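Encode chain A's predicted structure.
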Amino acid sequence: MDYQQLKAEIIAYSKEIGIDKIGFASADPFLELKNRLIRQQELGYQSGFEEPDIEKRANPAVLMEGANSIISIALAYPSKMKTRVESKKGERRGIFCRASWGLDYHLILKDRLEKLEAFILSKVQEAKVKAMVDTGELSDRAVAERAGIGWSGKNCAVITPEYGSYVYLGEMITNLPFEPDDPIEDQCGSCTKCLDACPTGALVQGGQINAKRCISFLTQTKDMIPEEFRDKIGNRIYGCDSCQTACPHNKGKDFHFHVEMEPDPETAKPLLKPILSLSNREFKKKFGTAAGSWRGKRPIQRNAIIALAHFKDETSVPELIQVIENETNPVLKGTAVWALSKIGNEAAYTALIKIKDREKDSEIQTEIAKALKKIERKRAN
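Encoded structure for chain A:
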């Protein structure tokens, strides 16, 4: 088998099926990554969403017997909406990060990887392959960096010369011995714009992130968001793009190569108040095909409440009262109480007084008492 010829044929075919960049890497253990992951674990910087077995994340041979090479792919996604919708008084909107615009990228990448796998097997029937996206064990970024897709930026994203960091990544382990491509030299230099732009200081230093402080992580949790972070979240209801939009390598980068990635503005930048009363069925219908729906509706509803508080949207007081009175979820109830204290107008204060007498949950009662004191302090000043 002429593997150089096969590699050229795979590259040509990848362009036919809508893969924007492809690279080849060895399947040697990722020793530097392993050490970094151990250190992250020791510091408590991991999100908890990752594969817990570090050996699986850093050693392809553990995942597939006879692993010889890894094929890395990248698909560029849009950074701007073709049709814009405005957030205005009484009709405030939240925002999903760009990686959750359009169809769930896991499905898009899976489609491309399945086509690539079928092509390889048509050429080499005895080939073994194992494909994965970011829910898989391997680190997409480490593979892409080794395969020459881009370099690992100080914002912990892979930055490509062509598309910036606005790319989805996937990979395929194979037993075929492809010649590896050369990695790209780091081009961040002395720039620290991403670190400076991070709202919560989650980027501890270039290339190191404390995931538990990252807004993208916080918006995906199911618990109460610590108060120190709520004001930082703004109107983000899923994910965060601050470290990407600040990056000079992303300036002017906006690609619309894939129709399934095009955002529906009403989904990517939805009205906030209607989110609070969505049923599970309505949520799935509106947001179910987006990557940001994977944690279910309640984190999105909680984040929408925080966004309404960010705007100090007085018109949302009736909806927030409904949440406190009708919801059984203590996170939504508690966040709505906090939001009323942030809005702090007479209607919010009166509502909290009335709810205080009816609320049976002691923790929510404590939140209400704290909210009332906050409003009273504002009035005193």
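Residues 298 and 329 are 9 Å apart (CA to CA).
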